[in-house]
Amino acid sequence: MRSPIRPLITSALVAACALSACGTPSPESDAAPSSDQAPTADSVAGAATETEEAMTEPSLYTLSTTTLDGEAVDLAEYAGRVSLVVNVASKCGYTPQYTGLQELHDELSPLGVSVLGFPSNDFGAQEPGSADQIREFCESTYGVKFPMFSKVQTKPGAEQSPIYAYLGEQTGELPGWNFCKYLVGKDGKPIAFFKSNVEPTSAELRTAIMDAL
Fold first, then answer.
1. Rounded to whole angstroms, what are the CA distances from 184 to 44, 61, 107, 203, 206?
2. Residue 33 lies in a domain
3. Is residue 12 part of a domain?
4. Residue 200: closest CA among 174, 185, 179
5. Sign of the C-alpha dihedral, residues 37, 43, 48, 52?
6. What is the pLDDT of residues 138-169, one digit of tens each?
7. Helices (H) and strands (E) in the chain — how many of each?
8. Distance CA 209, CA 126 (A)
9. 186, exposed or middle or buried, with CB in 10 Å at 0-12, 13-18, 19+?
């Protein structure tokens, strides 16, 4: 009589041979491929190039000028802030806007907003004074403490300030009178242009500034 144990032994031996032939899977073969790969030299160099290009791309903050005291200054120090660039004058009907501009600067400067004043004699010869006269007038009459820069020409021409040449090119707008305002974003790119009659306290201007933040 044929023993029933023999088929069982035979089946077990066949299974053992099959396992031996296939081998035991290694932990490495079971592991899912990693999606995190070390950056290559090319990718690092590419990222660095993009950063350099962003930093050197023309903007308000790649330009330089001089302070009201005649000291050279790079506007790069305002990078990362929202700026309100205003062509100001001491003998204009809009001159009382100095009060609102200073209040705006005081209130929003801690949030990252700067008012930047650029005296100009372009319109009605309403900024005829020297730097000392401008400073004295602004400080004693309106308590101006926001940054003020040297007198500039905003109109097109050989003497036009590079700052206003840039702002005009980017927005298609140049001041038509004193106290026009450019809102400039944290990246130094103009966001909006406001005419002289837009008060520093206007809801329109304030909303635009807060949106830029």
1. 31, 10, 18, 17, 13
2. no
3. no
4. 179
5. negative
6. 999 999 999 999 999 999 999 999 999 999 99
7. 7, 6
8. 28
9. middle
Q: What confidence tens digit (pLDDT) does each residue in 77-127 have?
A: 999 999 999 999 999 999 999 999 999 999 999 999 999 999 999 999 999
Does residue 183 contact residue 206 with C-beta atoms inside 8 Å?
no
CATH of the domain at 191: 3.40.30.10
SS3 104: helix
Answer whether residue 8 shows pLDDT above 50. no
CA dihedral over 70, 75, 76, 77, signed as positive or negative: positive
Which structural domain range is residue 75 located in? 61-212
Decide if 1 is inside a domain: no
Pairing of strands 72-74, 64-66: antiparallel
Distance between CA atoms of residues 134 and 117, nearest Å? 11
Q: Which residues carry out catalysis?
A: 92
Q: Per the structure block, which two tokens stand in for 199? A: 């008060």
Q: Are 115 and 145 in contact (CB under 8 A)?
A: no
Tokens found for residue 49: 């190039």
Specify the DSSP class assigned to residue 148: B
H/E element holding 116? strand 113-119
Provide the whole-model pTM: 0.75
CA dihedral angle for residue 183, residue 186, residue 187, residue 190, rounded to 10 degrees: -10
